[in-house]
Amino acid sequence: MVVQIANTQLTPEEYLAFEEKSLEKHEYVNGDVYAMAGSTDDHNTLSINVAGAINYHLGISACRVYMADVKAYLEARNCYYYPDLQVTCEAKD
């Protein structure tokens, strides 16, 4: 279940300041902020297994695998998400 926390639009800067102080995680979608739902044991097990397989496949490389606690910014959509998994090979990330 996804719950919008307010009817007020926030700027990305306002969202980041809010998220920094929050005890829960929220995603930002073009001005709207949504509380994130919890996960299940099966979901976590699947995520860990996939992350492990990807990490093993990458071997010794500049690429890194991140789990759900790392925020990703999609500039073209003006969104901040907490994806289950993400891989980056960019040092700036």
Characterize the structure shown.
With 93 residues, the protein is α+β, with helices and mostly antiparallel strands. Helix content is 30%, strand content 26%. It is built from 2 helices and 7 strands. A hairpin with a 2-residue loop joins β2 and β3. The radius of gyration is 15 Å and the shape is globular.
Report strand order across the widest sheet. 1-3-2-6-5
Structural class call reads: alpha+beta
**Poorly predicted parts:** none
Compute the CA-based radius of gyration: 15 Å
Estimated helix fraction: 25-40%
Taking all residues together, what is the mean pLDDT?
A: 89
Q: Per DSSP, what share of the residues sits in E-state strands of 2 or more residues?
A: 25-35%
Layout of helices and strands:
Blueprint (H helix, E strand, L loop, with lengths): L2 E2 L7 H10 L4 E4 L2 E4 L5 H18 L5 E4 L4 E3 L4 E3 L3 E4 L5
Task: Jot down its keywords.
93 residues, alpha+beta, 26% strand
Summarize the structure.
The chain has helices at 12-21, 41-58, and strands at residues 3-4, 26-29, 32-35, 64-67, 72-74, 79-81, 85-88. The two termini are 30 Å apart.
